[in-house]
């Protein structure tokens, strides 16, 4: 079995859903997928990392304010 422990993702590279699952489980990141909530339904399906961001804005339901979160975020799409 291949080593699935990834320490980072690279834009333009394909990863299996299983590899992405392992990455998310061990890293404090956000993954945005073009196929909604089906990202982890097929472990061998491949996804390409199309964008990488150092952070993002988030709206707080508690106080109605918008906050910038400095947290790695990636966009992946089905290959």
What is the number of domains?
1
Oligomer: single chain
SS content category:
mainly beta
* Count of helix runs: 1
Radius of gyration computed on alpha carbons: 14 Å
The overall average pLDDT, rounded, is 92
- Which descriptor suits the 3D outline? elongated
Poorly predicted segments: none
The amount of beta strand, in percent, is: 35-45%
Strand order of the largest sheet: 1-3-6-2
Q: How far apart, in Å, are the first and last alpha carbons?
A: 22 Å
Name the helix and strand elements from N-terminus to C-terminus, one letter apiece.
Answer: EHEEEEE
Q: Can you summarize the main beta sheet?
A: 4 strands, mixed
Description:
The longest helix is centred in the first third of the chain and has 10 residues, at 17-26. The chain is mainly beta. The strands form 2 sheets. Strands 1-3-6-2 form a 4-stranded mixed β-sheet. Strands 4-5 form a two-stranded antiparallel ribbon. The mean pLDDT is 92. It contains 1 helix and 6 strands. The chain has one helix at 17-26; strands at 14-16, 30-33, 46-53, 56-59, 66-69, 73-78. It has one domain.
Short structural description:
This protein has 1 helix and 6 strands, in the order E-H-E-E-E-E-E.
Summary tags:
79 residues; mainly beta; 4-stranded mixed sheet; two-stranded antiparallel ribbon; 1 helix; 13% helix; elongated
SSE diagram, text form:
Blueprint: E1 14-16, H1 17-26, E2 30-33, E3 46-53, E4 56-59, E5 66-69, E6 73-78
Parallel strand pairs: 2-6
Antiparallel strand pairs: 1-3, 3-6, 4-5
